[in-house]
Design brief:
The structure holds two protein chains of two kinds.
Chain A: H1 11-24, H2 26-63, E1 69-72, H3 80-88, E2 92-98, E3 105-110, E4 118-125, H4 130-133, E5 144-147, H5 149-155, E6 162-171, E7 174-187, E8 197-201, H6 202-212, E9 235-240, H7 246-252, E10 260-264, H8 266-273, E11 282-287, H9 295-304, E12 311-313, E13 320-324, E14 330-338, H10 367-370, E15 372-376, E16 385-393, E17 396-407, E18 414-417, H11 419-430, E19 433-436, E20 441-444, E21 451-456, H12 459-471, E22 476-478, H13 480-521, H14 524-532, H15 537-573, H16 591-616, H17 619-623
Parallel strand pairs in A: 4-8, 5-7, 14-18, 15-17
Antiparallel strand pairs in A: 1-21, 1-22, 2-21, 3-4, 3-6, 5-8, 6-7, 9-11, 9-12, 10-11, 13-14, 13-16, 16-17, 19-20
Chain B: E1 17-28, E2 31-42, E3 47-51, H1 58-65, E4 76-79, E5 88-89, H2 95-105, E6 106-109, H3 121-131, H4 136-149, H5 165-177, E7 183-187, H6 195-211, E8 215-220, H7 223-226, E9 232-242, E10 245-252
Parallel strand pairs in B: 2-10, 3-8, 3-9, 6-7, 7-8
Antiparallel strand pairs in B: 1-2, 1-4, 4-5, 9-10
Helix pairs in contact in B: 3-4, 3-5, 5-6
Classes of the chains: A alpha+beta, B alpha/beta.
Amino acid sequence: MADARGGPPKRALVLSLCLSDLCHERMLTLCMVMAVAAVLGPLLILFGLKYGTVETLRERLIHDPRNCEIRPVSSHAFTVQWFEDTAKRPDVSFVVPTTRQLSAAVELSPVGAPDKSVSLDALPTAPGDPLILENGAKVPDDGQALLSASAAEILGASVGDTLTLTVRRMKNSGFQSARTDLTVTGILPVRAGALRSVFISLSLLENIENFKDGLAVAAFNWPGELPRAYPLFNSLLTVLPTSPRPELLFKLTNNTGFAGRKMLSREEASDIAGLPMPDAECYILLTTKGSPAGMNNIEAVRNILAGQKAALFLPAPDAALSLSDAAGHDLGIFRIMSAGPLDSVAGTKLPNVFPWKEGFGRDIPSAEQWLKILAPTGRFPGGEQEATGEVTLGGNSVRFRVRIVPSADVTEDTVRAPLRFIGMLGILQSRPLFWDKDLREFLLSKRGYAGFRLYASGLENVAGLKRYFEEQGLQVHTEAERIDDVMRLDKYLSLIFWLIAAGSLAGGTACLVSNIYAGIERKRRELAVLRLLGLGWGAFIRFPLFTASFYAICGFGAALCLFYAMSFVINTLFADHLQGGESLCRLAWWHPFIALALTVLIALLSGGIAACRAAAVDPAQALRDE
Amino acid sequence: MNRADAGTFPAGAAPVLSVRDMKKIREKGGMHFELHVPSFSVHAGEFVAVVGESGCGKSTLLDILGLVLRPDAVGRFFLKRRTQREPADLATLSEQGLSLCRRKDIGYVMQSGGLLPYLSVLDNIVLPCRINAYPDKLSLKRAKVLAETLGIGAHLDKKPAFLSGGQRQRAAIARALVHMPRLVLADEPTAAVDNITACEVRDAFQRTAAEQMAAVILVTHDRGLIRGKVDRTVTFSLQKRKPGYVVSTLTESADG
């Protein structure tokens, strides 16, 4: 031979011998592969089921906005400011005010079929509502409605239908109702909530509440009263020409709405009233505590002082009026002063610019008549003019149209306003007002909201938010118990699953080991021949390891095919109960790799042990036909 | 002292295999068996038969010579190697060294051939060359020539299962010789075939081994097969020292 030296046997030789062997024994190889697949297939499906169901459950739990919901237990008055502050919190994903429970009861019916009307709860919503968005629906706009599953079912309504919304209120021992039409823009799935409800925009719900409160709703031409602002005052200055008897003094603060009483000097009184005081014996300042005084309170004081020749002044609160003309040009900022006494008293030199007697009877004059302000002539040389006024007081501000009357008697940087306007400032201190352009009237804004719909930005924030609200003295309801229950159930289910899986895994391993061991043991004689022919230990041991790996990899491949086929069947069968992207039986992308590695490891171990045994036994025994 | 290395061969040439004062003890089921080899050597081209009844230590001897069983004590255990001038001292070689000796310098013919069922006859024959990583083209050529010489040239592409017993043994002989070993060990190579075939196989074996001057040690219990055909015959003398204690000693046969 040309090259008799040679080298160590090539690696490929053992591999090719191994493959020849496997190919030669096709049927037996197939049996072994199937045996391995039979062990691994059900195990993979079991793990797939466990992983799929638990993941689906957990995903649902985490992504179900209902679990993040926090509801107030009872009604409160939440201010707009409260909502703004709460919405800014990072642990709050969404908050929208709600009205009182009673105000949310509405009726829906298909258009033209009022006899098929259904009572349900109206819930307010706003852009970003997670309950709606997570359930794949669109947030309804004004004039639109989103129905819950049960509401849609009982109404027989589908997307695109038009429904009539009916609101009722008690009026003179009868019902008065108002209607508007809404377009159904979506229907929520059952999991969003089992109650019969309709989601509408907050402004529509506020209008419904207003109507129920007896007010008119201009937007829908619903009849009713106007929430006219009524004057309120914090203090009253009484000027008495003679010293009053003690019992009269007592009467002034007894059940009149005024609680404080203070004697002033003439100068002090002039300063507070912003008017020169007539010469008198006694100047008494009455002040309120807590709620301000209304017209009836002032009337009560006036009655007490009847026949005393007293003059009553209503001091203006410390407020500034900023004026601008129709084009928006700034006309200056002025301190607001009272225009005159409530009852005219001899000695006041102010001209009577107001063509009516200042009184607070039931007949409310229109603002056209009374909303006039005396301003310094030096600043308004052009005569009377229309302007826009703005006052901010107690955190509330209001803009309105006002008529400016120049007057030489008004000092620079001040304006003199009628008492009714002073009363508007009094109300502005305690609650918001707005100027209705069409009615030319100050109307009361909503005081606040009875409740809210709030969603925490994650399950983990629910408990913290609950604590935060309870520290504010606000009792809230959360789904904490439900979350706990599901978490615990998940834990126990997982434990049971792992126990079953551990048993199956042990059985599977035993089966795999015995199959591969038997497969190698069977080849002992041929392995002994190879060893006799001088195959080194390393090469000799490689043969059974290759064989075992082949069984394991092919078996695993077959098992994986089985798994994917079965998981497809399972997921298809249960498709009705699953949402997009969910599956009941699935593995993460890295699971098969781990499983393959484990299988090959077990195969190599069992194959290696079998091979070592084959090598350790007296080779002579393997060589003979015994 | 019994000597089993009688010198019919030129005394000057060093033997291929040389064993002295070897002892192997086997104990099984309360039986004690001792194999003694006082002196045994085989020269290149020599065809030596080892005969004896079953249980006399034939297989044990062959396993030791075949380097799959280590002796318990040995005075001298040398094997002449193809590629080295000095003979290898088998008593001191590591497992790896023994493996290398088996691969390069020893050929085996097993009882039923010991052919790998999943390889074709040609692949079986050429396997020792491949394990030695000898050039494949030359190895194949040589394997084919050997197969022709042994009369199985027509069956090279078949799997061993499709051969007769005689053909299988011829293939096994070809495999034992293909890598040109110094020593060929044959363990009852004709036990599974009929008499006529056995004689044919024996003749083909002798002829091809002689062609490449390989030393052959043939183990058999069939004295008729080897009578007058081999260079030398060695056998065992059994000695029962007490019940369950047997000592077997390798000796030159009387009819050798």
